[in-house]
Amino acid sequence: MAKSCAACTTARAVLRRPKTGEPYCRECFFAAFENEVHQTIVENRLFKRGDRVAIGASGGKDSTVLASIMKTLNDRHDYGLDLFLLSVDEGISGYRDDSLETVKANRDEYGIPLKIVSYAELYGWSMDQIVETVGRKNNCTFCGVFRRQALDRGAALLKADHIVTGHNADDIAETVLMNLLRGDTPRLQRCAAIATTADESVPRSKPFKYTYEKEIVMYAYFKKLLYFSTECIYSPNAYRGYARTFLKDLEAVRPRAILDIIHSGEAYEACTRCGYMASHTVCKACVLLEGLNKGQPKLSVGGASQRRQLAALEAPASPARATPAAGASAS
Ligand SMILES: Nc1ncnc2c1ncn2[C@@H]1O[C@H](COP(=O)(O)OP(=O)(O)OP(=O)(O)O)[C@@H](O)[C@H]1O
Q1: Is 78 exposed, middle or buried (0-12, 13-18, 19+ CB in 10 A)?
Q2: What class of enzyme is it (predicted)?
Q3: Which CATH architecture has domain 46-237?
């Protein structure tokens, strides 16, 4: 017997939500999907009214769904944003030239202006030429670094206040895993952040940070969105491939694994004093040192929480405890 939708309980379910495993009808799935992205945008205060927002548009599923949903939410909730599509043409024949045709079709369908910047015009080198020179092994490094800057330069031409990209929950969890496997702990929290701002670059954010890739594909499918699905011909990123397979295996057993990994990245903190990894704003070594340096080592090794220990150590010394130092200077 056909199941009914877990949300409206009346319509017939046509899908099972990958994130929760619940049966949903089409309309309730659209509503839940759109509402979750809206919540992410509002709770993280990603934009302010009047912002000019450049949507990094590659023609792939993520950025195509992002463009569609940014338009839907901007209209529905009156965000007051000026939206633009921004595409980087890396100069990869048989790949980017075809995907840019998809972006142009999306420009016409959504009525969002499109700006294309190319590696050839910005750097004097296309990726095809770079690969001819450096080979296929390290070409992704060139492409990644150049794309980051190209998006900034394109956003500057558009006078954009903000760039959004289609990075989804799976992409972010994969990056957290890769940084963990490489022992690159300083990057853990940064790669899991929803918004980033580097000096002199345009602020960026990822409205799909908590959106599952499988749900993006479902949304595109049921909305009949047009996207380009070929993988880059130059990107045999084997390491990410293993992280991806591992993540998919985890997801199959426990769908929440994707969110849990993102939360692990978010929860990682670097000590605000010495930069070493910490589970609090200040690491245990700094708390112990503070105790030693203040002549109260026992305060920092007791059973109290690290926050309370630090607060106690940072509190102005009581008159009784101040006596030895005061006595020393008086004598
Ligand atoms: N050539 C490009 N021009 C503009 N934005 C890009 C380009 N390539 C990537 N991006 C942005 O970076 C995001 C992540 O890129 P990635 O290469 O991981 O692609 P993806 O996961 O296949 O996403 P998509 O499905 O949108 O192509 C994209 O969703 C898009 O917002």
Answers
A1: exposed
A2: transferase
A3: 3-Layer(aba) Sandwich (3.40)
